[in-house]
Amino acid sequence: MSLVVSDLLIEIDGRRVVDGVSFAVPDAARVxxxxxxxxxxxLTALALLGLLPDDARVAGSIRWNDVExxxxxxRDLSTIRGDEIGIVFQEPQTALNPLxxxxxxxxxxxxxxxxxxxxxxxARAATEARRVQLPEDALGRYPHQxxxxxxxxxxxxxxxAGRPGLLIADEPxxxxxxxxxxxxxxxxxxLVADAGMSLxxxxxxxxxxxxxxTDAVVLEDGAVVESGPVARLLSSxxxxxxxxxxxxxxxxxxxxxxxx
Length: 260
Fold this sequence. Notes:
Subcellular location: Cell membrane
Oligomer: single chain
Helix content: 25-40%
Protein name: ABC transporter ATP-binding protein
Shape: globular
Number of helices: 10
Strand content: 25-35%
Structural class: alpha/beta
Mean pLDDT: 89
Radius of gyration: 18 Å
Number of strands: 10
Distance between the termini: 42 Å
CATH topology of the domain at 1-78 and 167-173 and 199-260: Rossmann fold
Keywords: ATP-binding, Cell membrane, Membrane, Nucleotide-binding, Transport
CATH architecture of the domain at 1-78 and 167-173 and 199-260: 3-Layer(aba) Sandwich
GO molecular function: ATP binding; ATP hydrolysis activity
Membrane topology: Peripheral membrane protein
């Protein structure tokens, strides 16, 4: 299953915030969208699933398995969200429902997309919880009773419950400390590899990206300024933006060879 984005334009309140962005995520590939705050990377990710504000105008092409997504109705896109394309957001505390147990929230996308009964969905939810290494009693808890890392594991379980072909991860580790961040990256990397799915990873941190993606697209002010293998971007960046991202790379996760 592949994603191809061509000449994507996004305007909000008459202001162009994404300008001609093009990239592809082939089958089983791991691609990063990276840039500083305001570069348009998260808006691009939201556009893929029709999650932009109502006043946003989108032009260009977003093709998922040769099916054009731009211009499709929300009802059509809702059949793709979770089932064919899953998404994990930056802050699980706001993405999760505080009034529902973790088990119910993991089971909900399973019931919607696979039309399973309550008991079958609950059993599958338990399986998904084990896949993301949640403790056995987590299913009966509420989000506020879990740690930040555990909440993000719940969000990942929900995104993967429908067995999508593509996982979009939008800054999924930004709110976590470095140790938990590394654990979540390892977990996500393993799950993506085991399922043979594609990954689109959005981040502002080149060090984080180097842990999980093989290729990257660098954005600045809504436009692509550089793209290529992550290893090449780290060792020989050509744009000022990428050079700044290399300088700012989190030292505890990655350090250029020869530096102390």
